[in-house]
Amino acid sequence: MKFTLSWLKDHLDTDATAEQVAERLTAIGLEVEGIDDPAAKLAPFLIARILTAAPHPQADKLQILSVDAGGPEPLQVVCGAPNARAGLVGVFGAPGTYVPGIDVTLKVAAIRGVESRGMMCSARELLLSDAHDGILELADDAPVGTSYADYAQLSDPVIDVAITPNRQDCMGVRGIARDLAAAGLGTLKSLIVPTIKPAFPCPIAIRTDDPDGCPALYGRVVRGVANGAAPDWMARRLTAVGQRPISALVDITNYVMLDHGRPLHVYDLAKLQGGLVARKAAAGETLTALNGRDYALTPAMTVIADDTTVHDIGGIMGGLHSGVSADTTDIVVECAWFEPTTIARTGQALALTSDARTRFERGVDPQFLDDGLAIATDLIRQICGGEASDVVRAGTPPEGIRVIAHDPTLCLRLAGMAVPPDRQRRILTALGFGVDAAWNVRVPSWRRDIDGPADLVEEVVRIEGLDMLESTPLPRVDGVAQPTATPVQLLERRVRRTAAARGMNEAVTWSFIAQAEADAFGGGAWALTNPISEALKIMRPSMLPGLLSAAKRNADRGAATIRLFEVGRRYLGDGERATLGFVLMGDRARRDWRDGKPATFDAYDAKAEALALLAAAGVPVDRLQVMAAVSPVYHPGRSATLRLGPKTILAEFGELHPATARAMGLDGSAVAGEIYLDAVPQKRGTGPVRPGFAPPALQPVRRDFAFVVAPTLIADDLVRAVRGADKTAIVDARIFDRFVLPDGDLSVAVEVTLQPNDKSFTDADLTMIADKVVAAATKVGAKLR
Amino acid sequence: MDDIEQQKAALLAEVATADAAALEAIRVAALGKSGSITALLKTMGKLTPEERLVQGPAIHGLREAVTTAIADRKALLDTQALDARLATERLDLTLPVALPPAGSVHPVAQVMDELAEIFADLGFAVATGPEIEDDWHNFSALNIPETHPARAMHDTFYVERVGGQAEAHAGQSPSSDGAESASPAGEASAPAGPRMLLRTHTSPVQIRTMLGQQPPIRIIAPGRTYRSDSDATHTPMFHQVEGLVIDRGITMGHLKWTLETFVKAYFERGDIVLRLRPSYFPFTEPSAEVDVGFTWEKGRRVIGGGGDAAGGGWMEILGSGMVHPKVIAACGLDPAEWQGFAFGCGIDRLAMLKYGMDDLRPFFDGDLRWLRHYGFAALDMPTLSGGISA
Q: Which of B132, B277, B365 is closest, CB to CB, to A539?
């Protein structure tokens, strides 16, 4: 909402500057977004008198002027204006002055060989109007050498206020003036509503057949108007606040809307068939609105129609057909009250916004129909002439007056501000509330937003000033401090920091991905119905598409090694799952003077990350089973799941399937994995005390075994068999060498760690254990080499 | 006698110039089984006591002098040999070594940890809720009915199940942490199931918390939020932190103190000035937007000081207010007994203001160069004892 300072002063008796007004508005909750003074650009222009005018020796249409701009010496100016002549008082721009109308900064220049020190300006050059048939001519007594903008009173700062959705009453200048007056920045001038003597009875019928959507439809006819241009003062104000002047009648309705927050509509009587009726639209009806676009109406929408056709989407936008034109002579002025929810639904359904809708859906003052109509009619008669009929009032607007039983102590109890009851009463009264002795507060009809005591507290504190609010320390919570993070958050924090400690960089990628990306990862469960772009449409079913896209962008930027992870959610049909995803791409190790060639990541790197992260999550990783991957996004032979028990999948990892890599636009491959944090068993709280511990007195013994196995044997099967061969003595078994023999079998070497208990192993003990190991290995198909 | 002295002088002279091999030869020739000194020692037994008295010390003296000389010479030669070997063993330690890769924590995660730490000190627990929300939790319960003009300002993304299954989702999130809700009346009455959307703010967590837990309540709720908006300062996905306190006797004064304490702790400056400006949010009453004072330093706006002081200015950082009685009632609590405050603040913006990023968009690009530049080391854990920005 924009208004000018002079406009405000129509309603508010104040000496305040624009800056003071802005400061106070912001302090009372009407946030000022900017002050712009279009005349500021004209500040350097001075009033000057042409002393002499002589023909230019080199050009017929130019004259050489001697100009008195108030300086010690007259200035020589070359001028091409036909009206430039000795004695003329006009507007002068000195060298260095920016001329907004031609976007030029003046310099001392030679024009056809004659030096020119400045410029006499036309109205267009100063952006005052389109007139450019000559330089401006001021009155003879205009004070030479002083500011033209001051003289012409052009300075009228425009104040731009962000009106919150609850303050419909401040979508008109008068409402803003009322708030400022309550805040002590002046006195609200009393509103003089003109009395219109009807010259004839209204010749058309006006009724409402839709008392829900349009409870009140008032109107009158004005005959014999001339719809020319609006007067300068009105056009200038409208232009200043961003409304393009159109014609006097349209401008008058806009002006009343901006002045009082009261939208109106004017129909060309000649275009109507019969009277006006407010009714629900019929199915299939359409309207070409004033914006030139066609709208399909539904029976949920309230419209204004004549006997045959719709002319207005009630309270939102009028129709093109019955709009006023330069030829209009007789008009109907409509002043209605529309139900805000109907307006909101209709506007949403048609995706149509307008200044009228913005006001009606926030609820305009239901007690201002007659006044609004009278003010508009008065302006029409003054500007366009004509005679007005009497007013036809169909239906009645809601009363809009509520009474709230209030308690002034609530101000202290809720807001923590001790505002004396008298002061509270004065504030509320100044805002238009009625407060009786028992603190029954009558809400004014224009404050539809006020519906409870808390609202009254807000009115008091915003006018009193929130800068008066003192801080009150929040009392500390009694007792021992409890952890405030949830187990899931602690888990996320632990794995995040572990991943970073292991050299991965945390990214945050979009929760939504493209359809094709989602399809490559098994399809998403949730789709945005109104995505901002097709690339951000499906809620991700996996962390990997976003990470792989980020990895690709990094690779395209030349990154040789990419280690990315993200902690976030996957969005599945049955819920949102906390997940850590990671992607490893490019060189695991760069080429090195000691190790030679660069090494690329493989599935074992992904396994190492998965295990390290699960270990950090508190999972007993030595109890995890490595089983086949379930997701087809991975290479079928180079991927796996890590499970705790056969059903609980804690992680999946591996090399990407070439088809997945291709779908993601990757040149080579990548390895990746996801840790399903929601599946990680939460540790039960056992208190801080650990089980007792006594380190074994005797040293462990290590024995190596080399086995020949078929290439199909799963390494884990061999290790589990060996480890189970003697559960008391064997504490660890680890594969430390593995290679392919000439016949295609594998040689696998296992280091077995034996821990003696209270006495050392004898040779016989060791032989017996070794035999058990070999026997157990044989059972799974391994032969001792 | 003279023989012995001569022999000593001769042997010592030999030792003094011997190399390792010659030294061993001298030792064998003098002190070995059939060595010259060994032979002399063997003659001792045949000497008369008088002779022994004279000869004995001389012979022993000879043996000791030669033994010592040989040992000293050997030590010297060993030292020289070691020095010579070490002189050949040189590594160029200016050559590069491979360091473990430097990982990093994203600034958003870091700031969330900072917030959790600051508010833990004030007794606030961390709560979460689903990002795919229903209309009731995101709007209606927050006093934003369907036709409310404020809805248009939220630029909501709506979602639907792929394949058209209309099953309820919100509240089933395993990470909603006890904020599970009984199905509220407004939701149950919707015949076709609730309309689902991406939460436009973290405020629905207020609703879920009040539905799931009895006051007193002190929570913050950080998380992802979504609005259909995209420019240099807006991205369709962003992060917010919500704060909620519900108790008896909580006033706006407590809100102001809490915000001052939080902003000072977060920016780690004691000269923070806040300005509460009346504003409007449907779910708070009274409502206030909060500006923080800034000063200009080297052409940059720096949080701290400033405000109305010369050379300063105000920057909006959050919205807040006293929880609207209708919201408290919608959660089944009695607004006559329980009241409190709520606030909401953009986490990405907090990160930008503190750590000096100018553009929001790279936050979500995953550019390794940006992540390394603005990210945090794994062990940079924000702690109260170590300083919030670690």
A: B132
